[in-house]
Amino acid sequence: MSLSVRGWRDPGTRGPGGRARGSSAGGGEAPAGQGRRPRIPGRARVETLFWLVVLVLLYIWSSEGTQVSLIDLWEGLDTVGRMLGRMWPADWGYLPETVGPLLETLRLALLGTTLGAILAVPLSFLSARNVAGTGWAYQIARAIMNLIRSIPDLVWAALLVPAVGIGPTAGVLALTLFSTGIVAKLVSESVEAIDPGPLEALDAVGASRLARIVYAVVPQVLPHFIAYTLFMFEINLRTSTVLGLVGAGGIGSTMMTQLTFFRYDRLMAIVVMLFVLVVVVDWISTRWRQRLVEGAPARAVSDPVLMAEEPGLARSPAGTTAAVPAGAAVGAGGHAGAGAATPAGDPGVDPGAGAGSTRVTGTGPGDAGGRQAGTSRVSEGAGTRAGLEPPRRPWWRWVLALGILAALYAWAFQGVRFALLGDPGPVFRGLFSPNWDYAGKVFEGVAESLQIAFLGTLIASLVAVPFGFLAARNVASTLAVVGKGLLDAIRTFPELVLAIIFMAAVGPSPFAGVLAVGFHSIGTVGKLYSEAVEAVDREPIEALQAVGASPLMTFWHGVLPQVLPEFLSYALYRFEINIRAATVVGVIGAGGIGTSLIFNVQLRNWENVGMVLVGILATVLVVDAVSSRLRGRLV
Questions:
Q1: What's the pLDDT tens digit per position in 196-213?
Q2: H helices of 322-438, where?
Q3: CB 179 within 8 A of CB 112
Q4: Distance between CA 347 and CA 124 in Å, rounded?
Q5: How does residue 421 score in pLDDT terms, banded at 50, 70 and 90?
Q6: Which residues contact 49 (CB under 8 A, 6 or more apart)?
Q7: How high is the pLDDT of residue 296?
Q8: pTM, whole model, 2 decimals?
């Protein structure tokens, strides 16, 4: 597979990292020395050597702690082969019996997402500095938001089943809590990135805070609030398929039953049905989101959970992304006008915006390559009409849409019986009285989860490199569709299902968790890598080829320096997600802190469960903070 000039994007095309390649505010190249602070070559080599040593030490520590054994894996492949052989052909005659649980899964996702989005509205406004200020209400709202989004949804379900009883009630509540944290985080960032002009105008005439929110904030963030809710629905649909593994309703309980009786052919039929459902819902949701963002103001996105699950969502390795949809005014110099504000110094990009969007990419002070800070570039999108408002839709479409939504929610509420069958009192008393004597055991579990997440991320980051180039249209145009389809197929299988398969090979051990987390991550990381490769600047490649450089030298000096920082940044993003995934796989015995969690939940030892939650929260928050700082240095 050779690298050619044909197909590489024009200079100035923004990459997934949000950098406007080859552009500057004045339309030419920025003077040398601007942008990222120059590094002394000797110091750079020392830093590189230091991080390589750290990676090697972490690899040794993680390999020993997770009982990695390639011999065990090789010997267990025969067992996995027999297991996969029993999955196909699938028992298609079993499909009618899966319709009921499948519809319940759809109801769980719909209700959990909707209730979470509703609860996220006040929380998001209280968490926005430009609306709530920085007082005690802001601090409390931010703390609540970070708390509930740090706990994985399956962990919420495992805690709620003993509190409210087995059934869909626990599943709806678990998805509601998790959705509230994610949507509130995203919407609060959108609120902070709005155009301040209308807000200042209303403030100047003495409007109340409620009036300022209703007339200056809501119109700007409403389209993106709906788009984020649709994104969350896609994620919750995948998540709700495994909630039944802990008794929280949905088709997961049916999957567990078939696994218990070794009916892998029926399990395959269920997986195929889920795959079809997810693909259909994703397609519909994507179309709706593309229509929603037309004419909407810019937004900022930096939540690793949502971006890792949805690589097509606006993102940036630095942590903030923005887009100016079609219809937004564009001023002189390519800078977005009203409604296109982004946090100062943060790069912005929206790779997932639909056709007809005008994308504005701002490069911050930390941009590589010495490009001028504050640069903005408007990419040429099909159908973009700067300064023109999108056409109004007929009123009957809104009536029809509201009627469909009303019927849909009536169907969803009718199919889910809400009942409080458990006794939540002892559960909450124990959770808020953690057993600190259990801290040593929690520390061991947290360390094992870190080892699983690190090795899984390392495996995925390395294996995904060839997949990323294979799926890039400007490298392998004929094979890109196959590569992208393969990556999407890998992402379809949840870590829990993969953990069950790998446990058949290596037994219930942390090694099974490493394999499950790593295999699942290949799909997401590979997709991100392919987008980074598709956005490379072709000027360095043309210059090297003009002087007769070989394909290997062209890749080494023209391509790798552009994509390597983004590859590393995406790997750090995935590590944040895999910390949560390593907790989840432990629920079924694949190592990590999740094993201690489910063990104490089954024993109703809520004081120990409270201590486990303290460990999970501390780990997630610390890892997120460290990863964010490292990503800031990379980009």
A1: 788 778 878 887 778 877
A2: 395-415, 424-431
A3: yes
A4: 22
A5: low
A6: none
A7: 45
A8: 0.65
Q: Which among 612, 599, 567 has a CA at the least distance from the CA of 449?
A: 612
> What phi, psi does 525 have (nearest 5°)?
-65, -40
Instruction: Mark residue 63 as left, alpha or beta (left: phi above 0; alpha: psi -120 to 50; beta: remaining).
Output: alpha
Tokens of 178: 């998790």
**Within 13 Å and on the Cβ side, how many CA atoms surround 517?**
34
The pLDDT of residue 69 is above 70: yes
| pLDDT of amino acid 136 | 84
Structure tokens at 261: 């009786």
- The two tokens of residue 159 are 């805690």
pLDDT reading at 300 higher than 50: no
Confidence of residue 94 (pLDDT cuts 50, 70, 90): confident
pLDDT for the residue 604: 79
Residue 154's contacts (CB-CB under 8 Å, 6 or more residues apart) are 174, 239, 242, 243, 245, 246, 496, 584, 587
Q: Where is pLDDT greater, at 47 or 362?
A: 47
The CB-side HSE value for 80 (13 A sphere, CA atoms) comes to 18
Residue 164 tokens read as 């409210």
Q: How many CB atoms lie within 10 A of CB 382?
A: 9
Q: Given phi > 0 = left and psi -120 to 50 = alpha, else beta, which region is 548?
A: left
Task: Give the separation between CA 383 and CA 635, rounded to whole angstroms.
Answer: 32
Instruction: Tell me which amino acid residue 426 is.
Output: P
Q: Is the peptide bond before 89 cis (omega within 30 degrees of 0)?
A: yes
Task: Determine whether 602 is exposed, middle or buried from the number of CB atoms within 10 Å of its CB (0-12, 13-18, 19+).
Answer: exposed
**Cα gap 308→496, rounded to integer Å:** 17
The DSSP-derived string for 245-261 is GGTSSSTHHHHHHHHHT
Spatial distance between the Cα atoms of 385 and 326, rounded to a whole number of angstroms: 6
CA distance from start to end of the chain = 28
Backbone angles phi, psi at 402, to 5 degrees: -65, -40
Q: Coil, strand or helix: which one is 377?
A: strand
Q: How many CB atoms lie within 10 A of CB 8?
A: 24
Tell me the C-alpha to C-alpha distance, in Å, between residue 389 and each of 328, 332, 381.
Answer: 8, 19, 16
Residue 632 has pLDDT above 80, yes or no: no
> Can you read off the two tokens belonging to residue 32?
């040398």
Confidence check: pLDDT of 570 > 80: yes
* Structure-token match 């919750």, residue found: 236
Which helix (H) or strand (E) segment is 461 a member of? Answer: helix 439-470
The average pLDDT across 520-533 equals 84
Q: Tokens 């509420």, residue?
A: 413
The pLDDT mean for the chain works out to 71
The predicted pLDDT at position 634 comes to 63
User: What count of Cα atoms within 13 Å lies in the side-chain half-sphere of residue 97?
Assistant: 12
Q: Distance (Å, rounded) from C-alpha 11 to C-alpha 21?
A: 6
For the cut 50, the answer to whether the pLDDT of residue 333 exceeds it is: no
d(CA 251, CA 257): 10
